[in-house]
Specification:
Length: about 170
């Protein structure tokens, strides 16, 4: 086992997470390499450790930089660009899936609203049942969005721990 096995496990984790959420596995491998790096790394070093070509790594790093997953650094007197991971797993999660979940929440909101409009003034047991089901789904969807936006906007571990305690019923507001 040892250090190399631990590094491989971390890199595989990030690669699998990237795949699950529609990104190239390369994003995960790059993030894993940089997440465990003591110092910022050059494009060549990253390519060597991931086993991908310089052009693939370069393209991925540009996208990852725009997502806020990595930061490009210039060292005085050195023409090379160096990269480091943000080290905030919140940023990785937000880029990988929180934003996608929010998109789904918004899409569901729009579709549920359209479904209510389609019901119009129709009455009867089936229409009432469908209307009530849609309204319940709309309320839960809104709550899910509020909770996710709260999580995304708070870095403070203490605030998030208090939220969990409150949600689990261990604390009154």
């Amino acid at each position: 086992m040892g250090v190399e096995e631990a590094r491989r496990i971390v890199m595989e984790h990030f690669a699998n997470a990237a795949r699950r959420f529609g990104f190239s596995e390369l994003y995960g491998y790059i993030y894993g390499v940089l997440f465990l790096a003591r110092e910022p790394m050059s494009l060549g070093e990253i390519a060597e450790l991931t086993g991908y070509s310089l052009s693939h790594v370069s393209t991925a790093l540009k996208s990852m930089e725009s997502l806020g997953l990595v930061v490009r650094i210039k060292k005085p007197g050195d023409k090379k660009a160096y990269y480091k991971a943000t080290k905030l797993l919140k940023d990785w999660r937000q880029a990988a899936y929180y934003n996608r979940i929010l998109e789904d929440i918004e899409q569901m909101k729009d579709n549920l609203r359209k479904a209510l409009e389609a019901l119009g003034d129709e009455t009867g047991p089936e229409a009432d049942f469908v209307r009530e089901s849609i309204e319940v789904a709309m309320k839960r969807n809104e709550l899910a969005g509020r909770i996710l936006r709260f999580i995304m906007s708070h870095d403070d571990e203490e605030v998030l721990e208090r939220l969990i305690t409150c949600l689990e019923g261990g604390e009154k507001r």
